[in-house]
Design brief:
Structural class: mainly alpha
Helix content: over 70%
Radius of gyration: 21 Å
Strand content: under 5%
Order of helices and strands: HHHHHHHHH
């Protein structure tokens, strides 16, 4: 099963598809970043979108969105990822799924930790926010960035190592969770629309990079192990010595 799953990751068509997705995502992030830096372009819709959402928030939906946004936080993603990684290790006896989820999540978190202070964009005003003012940097949305990277990789590892026949269901589920998390950041008024879109673009670009580079790293490690085994001296105690 693992070898069959690996072929889904390492196939030439899969690598080409991920490369295209990565290039489009990187270009999209660049466009959004430019819009934020020059305070034009796509940011022209930010204020009107935030104001509209704030004036149409039903009270019953607020606790639901606060729960949804928690699904995109590190406090949920880290233990959940460890639990899934442990589950797959027990079933497949490999730590590769956990390693791939960790790289996807940690890389995305590291990227937005660099972008946020570098851009230094202010969040929406406190009057538009729910649950107390958040005064941290706005661009990009950390929840959106790490959610699309983590849940995207979660879908990959579940399809490869657990339920390949449920590929469509798993992919749709991961996409819905990611979209709802982004929507919750807009609903709660803690991010502008372009913050969330920028987070999605940055996180997807990183996920695509990991999916492209992972098979290359695995292949390099396999060749290195093979070279080491060929170069290892024969055991003097072996019958053929």
């Amino acid at each position: 099963m693992v070898r069959k799953g690996d072929s889904r990751i390492e196939g030439r068509g899969s690598l080409t598809a991920w490369s295209i997705v990565g290039l489009i995502s990187a270009a999209g992030f660049g466009l959004l970043l430019w819009s934020v830096l020059v305070r034009g372009g796509l940011t022209s819709a930010d204020s009107s979108v935030a104001t509209y959402i704030a004036s149409h928030r039903p009270g019953w939906l607020t606790p639901v969105m606060q729960l949804v946004t928690w699904l995109g936080s590190s406090f949920f993603i880290v233990p959940f990822g460890l639990a899934v990684g442990g589950f797959l290790w027990r079933r497949r006896h490999t730590w590769e799924p956990l390693a791939m989820m960790a790289v996807a999540f940690l890389g995305a978190a590291g990227l937005y930790d660099i972008v946020k202070p570098a851009v230094g964009r202010a969040r929406p005003p406190a009057g538009l926010q729910v649950g107390g003012p958040d005064t941290g940097n706005a661009f990009t949305s950390g929840h959106a960035t790490q959610s699309i990277a983590f849940y995207g990789m979660l879908a990959v590892v579940l399809i490869v190592w657990w339920a390949p026949r449920r590929r469509a269901l798993i992919a749709i589920g991961a996409a819905l969770v990611t979209l709802l998390i982004g929507a919750s950041r807009l609903y709660l008024g803690v991010h502008w629309l372009t913050d969330v879109l920028g987070g999605y673009a940055l996180g997807l670009a990183w996920l695509s990079f990991v999916m492209v580079i992972a098979p290359l790293v695995k292949d390099w490690m396999r060749r290195r192990r093979a070279t080491s085994q060929r170069a290892a001296p024969a055991d003097p105690a072996s019958p053929g010595s």
